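quick one before i forget lol
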Amino acid sequence: MIKNWFGGICISLTLAGNVMAEPTYTQLSFEDLNGWAADDHQAALDVFLSTCRDMRAIEWDVLCAFLETNPDPRRFFEKFFTPVLIEDGNSMLFTGYFEPELPGSRIRGDAYRYPIYAVPDDLVPGEPYLTRRQIDEDRPLAGRDLELAWLTDPVDLFFLQVQGSGRIRLPDGGMMRVGYGGKNGRDYSSVGMALVDRGIYEPHQVSAAVIRNWVRQNREEGRALLWENESYVFFREVSEVPPELGPLGAMNRSITQGRSIAVDPAFVTLGSPVWIEKGGTEPMNRLMVAQDTGSAIKGAQRADIFFGTGEEAGREAGTIKDDGRMIVLMPAPIAHRIMVAQR
């Protein structure tokens, strides 16, 4: 999905100014994983299977081939994987994200004035392109047949971009789905952090709902606030993804509610099983699969949990700003090489 709003807010508030140390690797046993025996390993294995064949290394190929024998799921993970704790000097931070569902139209109208743009043909991946302000204020993309759909609210558009995917409820009752297509090569910055820097809110008060309300109540200042995040996401239509499946993640496969997480691929190989031990008011010990990324998800101990689609999922995701730890399950040969190299 390449996102996210709660993740983006939290990582900026927590890690701003921090410098990541060289990662360290600590080999653990499955007995060290709190709650491991009680988890639903079959549910995790089903999610792992959805992206296993997309991984590009011989060690993963061997594991994926073995899955055709329908092994016992818990024994499979314990036999072929080694739990490894990766740390970079920063504390663990779990946040949540979801797939929004928004009113919109394929045709511009009185209520539908804010375009969702496809990727411009002159955008070069990784190179700076037009800023958010330039796109919104000067409208250089208008008239280039890039409008996939139109929304009713500029704040909805902003958060759709930070989430990176969504479902659009059309006037005729139909549904359109959009997924991440590309971005403008500009750095992400937290508008929540900007409100804290101005003394308007304390860090613990910042949430997506708070930002929405402040922008709507302060129209001109709110518009300028959103422009402070120069990062701008472009989309592609992915309505072919069945409605019962989750949105497409960074591996171009549907992600799964409560079993998929977004991670920093500089530390965690996409597709890897990851054991999480989340604290907070609703602790969670669960085997997840790293199937997504996000511009605000940076660091070895940083993860965003996918909570599903719609308003209720958004409310759940919005409550997650928790500590804990996460442990990557690496194929045993890869873990062994890393441990030897670290000595």
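fyi The longest strand covers residues 175-183.
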